[in-house]
Amino acid sequence: MSDAAEIIETVKGQGDVYLPKTIQRNERLARGLVPKLMRVAGRLPFADDLAAAYYAARDPRTPMKAKAILFGAAAYFVLPVDLVPDVVVGLGFTDDATVLATALSVVGMHVKESHRSLARKLLSLPEPVRDAP
What we know:
This protein is mainly α. It has seven helices and two strands, in the order H-E-E-H-H-H-H-H-H. It has one domain. Strands 1-2 form a two-stranded antiparallel ribbon.
């Protein structure tokens, strides 16, 4: 089956929502995100953005096109085959950061504060201090 035919063909996902097969495949890959993220979080300045993007992609209120882009970015982070291998010191995660930054520039408006809060909780990061009015 061609890639175009695979994208068009749909399968039923969680909550009886029809998801393109590519999104379903990326969602399966992205499930490996949390273990890998926890292993390397200390070396990633963008770890909270990546986790927030993952939570946004899993949110049923996030539009399908945004889910596809966010799951694609998370799946790229998890995939062992990379443009720049993650083990290269100093450069290993630059391609992952670029993919995530591009994804967030396109669909970042769908990453809500609730997703960012979940990401901070996962990574044991403090909540930001809010100025009192």
